[in-house]
Amino acid sequence: MSGNRDKIIKILSKSDRFVTADELAKSIGISTKTIYRAVNGINDHYDEPIIVSERGKGLKLNYDRYLELTKQTGSENDKLDSTPLERRNQILTKLLFNAPLANRVSEMYEDFFVSIELIHQDLTIISKQLQKYDLSLKRDGSFVSVVGDERNIRRAINAVLMQSNAMNQESINDFVSEFHDLSRFDNQFITTQLELIQRLLNTTIPYPYNVNIFSHLYILMKRIRQGKMIDSKDGQIKNKRYEKIIQANPKFYKVSNDVIKNVADYLNCDIPAIESYYLLEYLISMRYNNNYVYDKRLHLNRWSWLNSISSSLD
Hints:
Elements: H1 3-13, H2 21-28, H3 32-45, E1 51-54, E2 58-61, H4 63-73, H5 84-98, E3 103-104, H6 105-108, H7 116-131, E4 136-140, E5 143-147, H8 150-163, H9 172-177, H10 184-201, H11 209-226, H12 240-248, H13 250-267, H14 274-289, H15 296-300, H16 302-312
Antiparallel strand pairs: 1-2, 3-5, 4-5
Helix pairs in contact: 2-3, 5-8, 8-11, 10-11, 10-13, 11-14, 12-16, 13-14
């Protein structure tokens, strides 16, 4: 298939809506007449219209049918790089890991062949997603950044990872293989911490808590190394509810404190005491919810659940 046809399929595969021929022409740098000619060639190539055309709306790829046909033909060139949701998750992950630093929009999207209009749509959707975690998307010319509390930033990172293929792996080894920036030494260190938790608590960490804790430590270490952590207002444990939860779970807190000290030694840095409390939340969540059927909503609502636990201690 020609270069123009590949580009057309790539753009349409990453759009949730109809794209006009004029938009495609401007993105690729060819005429609208060439666009229509290429679309006809694509549909002829598959012996059926995988690109649907509607008057007044534009062109749209029949995504499911396209996947079926490319799987049948075994064509490597026709495979899609990512869906719109996957693209937005990748962009959101970049923004969150770089927070609070600003990111040049053109650099974030350099690996995606999408229009300026589609980029604006992505950022609008991402902005709404961030609001669920009390975070905001700040735009300044050609730059964009995530603004908010460090804890909320990491909550959002974990949620994005939960939606990715990486967090759908039930095996730690499968999960780790999805992170190309995780070194063998980091993998071994974090895995050792999971084994330490299991040994000290005399238990086996079930799925998805093993993946959640691994992810939490991975995020913490990466944020520290990048020097992008925002100082939390409660870097030291001064919140009475936090103190009551710690007092009610002394064994779990000692384990979480030991693990955070190990992370500090591994990275050769000081880590605020509040980090031991954040890890404690995962451990007591595992303790109280171990018999429940796993539901992603349960994980996302863990914070409100902990608040209800702490309220009962007042």
